[in-house]
Every structure is written in structure tokens, then in C-alpha cells.
Amino acid sequence: MVLVNKLLWDAHPPGLIKPVVRVLAPESELVHSRISPYGPGLERELVELFAEQAGVHPIWLHMDGPGAAWDELRHHRADLLVGVGYAPSRPFLDSLVTPVASGPIYARHPVGVVHQRRHHPPQDPSDLCRRKVLLPENPLLRLTFLQLLDDVDRNGLSLDDTTCSEAPLLTKEASLPVQLAAMVETEARFTLVDTGRFSLWGPFYADFQLAHSLETTLEYRWFWRDDRNLLAPKLTEFWNNMIQDNELERIQDKYLGFLPESSDRFALLHLLETLQRELPRHGKTILKAAQRYEIDPLLLIALIYHESRFDSEAVSRTGVRGIMQITQVTARELGLDDPMNPTKSILAGARYLRQIWNRLDHPDLSEWDRWFLALSAYNQGLGHTWDAMALAGSLGLKETSWNDVKRVFPLLSQRDYYSKARHGYTRGFEAVAHVEAIRYYYYVLHGLLVLERPEGKHLGRLGRPGLLS
């Protein structure tokens, strides 16, 4: 394929494929995902969805820095800027030779102060002046730093002011792992981060902790050239539809909706210690079940960990038993004579999950929504999941979207709603908590594997994920 005058051509055989849109973006997990199993990245999925609707092909360009981004738009070397949480002033945008338009704000992430756990967190803003701080090349983060210093009566302080005992270390904006590595290399005590980005990487960097979330927020929106560009009206229409149809919220939930407000270091350590102890014992059975029933082994591990913490003798307060926490009724249906036998239980539980998935056969269900709904049914029963889907539809929501269904599932524990449901009362709030926890564990397991962390060495023996239908 070759690019000629912003049109993509196929050389063999020759012919026009489609026009292109040149997309400028920073290096970020929010743009091109490395660790998420749920898709190519939030921003990338949005761009690809727009490109499909607009009949264009996205060409991705790397953004070297904030200042260079506006030059690329101004000099017609890029058409669209995504994945940045800051914007210059409107007068600046209006002053550009090429007019630049912006879409609606679709995400707000507070600025946060992160510290290395071996050091104490900052007690007040003055600590940021007395200790070494790493500041990436992000205008809003640097402005926030100055505003924090203003709180200790340092009005008008510049970044190279020598009245601070420790001047901040200024670095180019990069991915969060690079930023955290620079903290270690430079022995910086603190850094300012986008908390949205940090929440994605936090589970894999236990030595760093979010100390404070500040009032200042990074606001995410797209920017594009507005010089009678044919894409401009299509971009405006795209964003109007994404917000009006709640499709933006559904995509955001897929990538971010399961993340806890903060990573519990001790809970993560327990997960890793459990895997290190239990996977050598149960790994072969898990892999056998995963291959037989076409389930990602990492998803199966996440399910087992959440259900029983790999305790083959676990018995819940409702009487479900074994490593897969299977009810007596379901055990009889599956022909499982001994739920306390971990080998038999894992194979039966995987078969049960696949049966549920097969029965959730709806033409409008995406792959991940189908798995999330199947997990909810594993917890509360397929009938109650169908009730929740029907309730979502009756309330004007999308019954095939987990994001929409999980909003109404807890209502089925209220008389006004369960009295009208076909299968009656259910603890819908437990179903939601069940699915979100498994999504999080699966995310962590997938990240440990693809990042090739030592903590995930036992996962590698199960093979890379990819068995999902």
C-alpha cells in the first residue's frame, strides 16, 4: 500500500482504497494499549470507530511533545490530535494559521502526586519544594506545580527558581513506566501524574503510591483542523452521536470501569502469592479445561481466585462448595459428584461457564459483553441475568451492554422490580461486584504476562491468552 496525496492506494492490484486521516497521539496506555486484554486501547478504538463510520483509514503519528503537536496541525502534517489531557487557550488556537476545532470534553482525570513507597508521602505542598520532584513536559502538570507552591506563599515562582532547596527535574513527556523509571534513576521523591493513566499502571508498580489527588483536572478532548476540512463535520457528528447514544460511556467502561479507586498493595501481594503457590498444583487442570471449553486460561484463573482463593474446601454462607463454588443443583446438572475435588470442580466449572456463554446467543452481543454477562450468570444464575437484560431494555438502556445491565442489576433486589421479573429476587449487587472483580484480576494477570514480570512466571506456562471466542 502507498500513500499519495493523503489517499491510500493498493499497488497490487492498483486501485484506490480510501482516504486517510493522520492521527497524532502521545505514547500512552490510553491510546495504544499494551496491558489491557479488552481491546487495542480506548483512544485507538474510538479513532477506529470514527474511521469506519467516516470511510477513512487512520495513519498513526507519534507526538514528540505538546508544542510540536500544534505545529503539526498548523502545518497540515496531521489532521487529528487525540489522547492529550490539556489544551492551549482559545486565543492561541484562533491565532494559528490553520484554524483548530475541538470536540467535547469526554474525560476528566485529576492531577495526582505519586511518591515512592520507601519514602513518606508529602505532608503539605511545601514538601514539593524541599524534596526532589520529577515534572514531565506537560503544561498543566507544570502549572499545577507552580500553583501548589503558591499555596506556601511563593507567588510568581518560576520552575528554575533557586529559592527552593530542591529545584524540580524537568523531563520530556513519556509513557508512565518511563516516568516512574526516571523517578528511580534520578532518586526523585515525588512526581505529578494523570491519575487516569496511573490507575492503569498502578497494579504493576507496587513500589509507587498515589499520595494525593488534587483539584486540578486534565480534560481530554480531540482537536482537528477546521480549514474547510471534509473531516470536520464528520468529527462533530461522530462526537454528538457517541455522547447521545451513550456509546462513549460503554467503551470507557470496557477499559476503565473495573479499576478500583486505588490499588491495594496487600491484596495484590496475596493474589501473586496465591498464584505462586497454587498454579504449579492446578495449572495442568486449568489449561486442560481452558482448551477443552475454549476459555482463556487467565480468565479461568481470575474466576477461581475470586470464587475461592484456590481453596478446594471452601464453603460459602449460601452452601456453594469447592474451588469453583458450584451449587448443589448445578453440580447435579453437571454430573459433578464431588465438588470438593479440585480437578473435577475446575473441569465442571469451566464447562458450566461455557454452557452459559453458549446460551447467551444474541446477535447484538459483543464478545466481551457476552463474557461479562456470562460471568454474572455464573454468580446469580442465567435466569436472573436475562431478567436484568430485560429490565435494562425496559428502562431505555441497551440490554446487550454489560455497562447498561450492571446499572440495573442491583434493582432486582428491590420489591418494585423483582416482583415483576420472571425469575424473582436476586442479589444483583453481588453479580456486579463479582464481574468487576474478575475483570480486574484478569486485567492484572494479562498485564503480568505481557510485561513478562517475574511475578507472572507461572502464568507463562499456561501459554499466552487468546482462546476467547
Helix percentage? 40-55%
Quote the average pLDDT: 88
Protein structure class: alpha/beta
The shape, in one word, is globular
CATH architect. name of the largest domain = Orthogonal Bundle
Major β-sheet, in short? 7 strands, mixed
Overall number of structural domains: 3
CATH class assignment of the largest domain: Mainly Alpha
Oligomer: single chain
Structure explained in plain terms:
It is a single chain. The chain is of the alpha/beta class and 469 residues long. It has three domains: 2-106 and 221-256, D-Maltodextrin-Binding Protein, domain 2 (3-Layer(aba) Sandwich), CATH 3.40.190.10; 111-217, Periplasmic binding protein-like II (D-Maltodextrin-Binding Protein, domain 2); 265-460, Orthogonal Bundle (Lysozyme), CATH 1.10.530.10. It is built from 19 helices and twelve strands. Strands 1, 2, 3, 4, 5, 6 and 12 form a seven-stranded mixed β-sheet that branches. Strands 9-8-10-7-11 form a five-stranded mixed β-sheet, sandwiched between helices. Strand 1 and strand 2 form a beta hairpin. Helix 14 (367-380) crosses helix 18. The two termini are 30 Å apart. The relative contact order is 0.10. Residues 1-5, 154-162 and 465-469 have low confidence and may be disordered.
